[in-house]
């Protein structure tokens, strides 16, 4: 990882940020400045709303109980990805600040700041020059914004803390050989794997560091202690690959690449990330998806150039081991994202800024250390100029990061900026459609979903969202058509199966709807919406007992869903269970006093329990509530019921 450089102590006083050794007070002031500037430049993103798949990563209501925490650990598929420590962190965060996204953003920034401190501590322990400079670049490089500002990528910032902590502690073990230190490093590595398994590359990174330090590797002192790390990393990587393929959905035509294509892809990916580190402009949330074609000669340039560079660095390794170590760390840490293993985001793009969050350290440290070496051998009179140049570069990175963070201030801004540079992104058009739908702009939402499908007819999410949108307009046949398309493209997606069940229920096709709702529940047994749709479907085919059971499950999982309480109460009233119906209608009105039909249901329940005065009082409240909201038509059934019952009395 680090460059093979040494700087004489007598040269350090003028080196400033690039120095290897400096007074502790100087380093402390520098670190405090870096952390403060980092907080300032990231502040525009701290109030940004949830993006793309954040809702799927954050703890769903059915997982917010202690049983939900148990499921996070022991039920693969209960969460978006099987990273139980990450989702446990989200679970605890949901208890702290609920739906407030600011809290999630702040904790992601906090983990990033901790990682910056750990990077400095590691480089200082290794006596690598330019440690403070490298920490500043890592803290303020705009390529890190996606990892810090996107809530879902808290798995990057949190796993980095465990990864870097494990690395730092293992370096201490390498010196002391104490068993407790070794055990602590191994435990931290396990925590890193449980947060994100890209950290499985840690033992290989440690071997690179030892080779850089000593010029050789020893089986007894270097390799053998890391065998458990390699085994645990292999197990974690295998589990993640299985989850990505079978549970997340990283399979299908989008992933059908021959081994030759994957090699071409890997070469291009490496150069792409390297370019973004040195020229961090035109950073995009979703990059265009490349076409990998071995018949195009220019695509061979990338892997061949990478091979030439590696061979050249190998040749000069006896004189300079640092450059080879840094490049190998960069490429090795990128291995999970090079295309040899399928990951879900490849469906949309083969590259993403957050994929190089840890890998970037190889190049950052190499560049910072190289700058320190040049300053150390430069004449004294030009060293202040070198310091000024490096300070200006850090300032430029801070400005670029501040600008990039502004894009994450809200999803609409981010998606619009993405479309300016990648107008062919079907995913972003779909996401914009969701935003328009949430803001009650159905025409704009429909237009975006249709554009998304015009760009990519295999966009299952766009089919699913379009099905929901047109069903709200009563276009049920079209809704069923798009919903079936979504299910055919992703047959195991619980959400898509539930949407199809919903639109079939609305179309009165109850028997068929019940089958899809059951399939959805097989994938997500604690899905309240699927229980709700199954209950309605079973009620439609006169399976009253089954409908009551699934309504009961739905309200158990989602006690905050007024509409489910209300329809459960209506079925209970139909089955002559007025006391239970009363409880459900009361729960409905507690949650949403504008649900006019619940007033009528509560009044009817009270009437059947011979609580006449209370029934009439509730009916009158319902009439007032309906008229206060301009819903006179909804007030009429209550008025008619009230007149009829008072006349009978």
Secondary structure layout:
Layout: H1 24-42, H2 54-57, H3 66-74, H4 84-97, H5 101-125, H6 131-140, H7 145-149, H8 154-176, H9 179-195, H10 202-214, H11 219-223, H12 227-248, H13 259-278, H14 301-315, H15 322-334, H16 360-377, H17 383-407, H18 411-421, H19 426-438, H20 442-455, H21 460-472, H22 476-489, H23 494-506, H24 510-523, H25 528-540, H26 544-557, H27 562-574, H28 578-591, H29 596-608, H30 612-628, H31 632-648
Helix pairs in contact: 1-5, 1-6, 1-17, 3-4, 4-9, 5-6, 5-8, 6-16, 6-17, 8-9, 9-12, 10-15, 13-14, 15-16, 18-19, 19-20, 19-21, 20-21, 21-22, 21-23, 22-23, 23-24, 23-25, 24-25, 25-26, 26-27, 27-28, 27-29, 28-29, 29-30, 29-31, 30-31
Primary descriptors:
Serine Threonine Protein Phosphatase 5, Tetratricopeptide repeat; mainly alpha; single chain; 649 residues
Give a description of the structure.
The chain has helices at residues 24-42, 54-57, 66-74, 84-97, 101-125, 131-140, 145-149, 154-176, 179-195, 202-214, 219-223, 227-248, 259-278, 301-315, 322-334, 360-377, 383-407, 411-421, 426-438, 442-455, 460-472, 476-489, 494-506, 510-523, 528-540, 544-557, 562-574, 578-591, 596-608, 612-628, 632-648. With 649 residues, it is mainly alpha-helical. Among the domains are: 24-57 and 100-411, no CATH class; 560-649, Serine Threonine Protein Phosphatase 5, Tetratricopeptide repeat (Alpha Horseshoe), CATH 1.25.40.10. Helix 13 packs across helix 14 (301-315) and helix 20 runs antiparallel to helix 21. The protein starts with 23 loop residues before the first helix and ends with a helix. Residues 1-16 have low confidence and may be disordered.
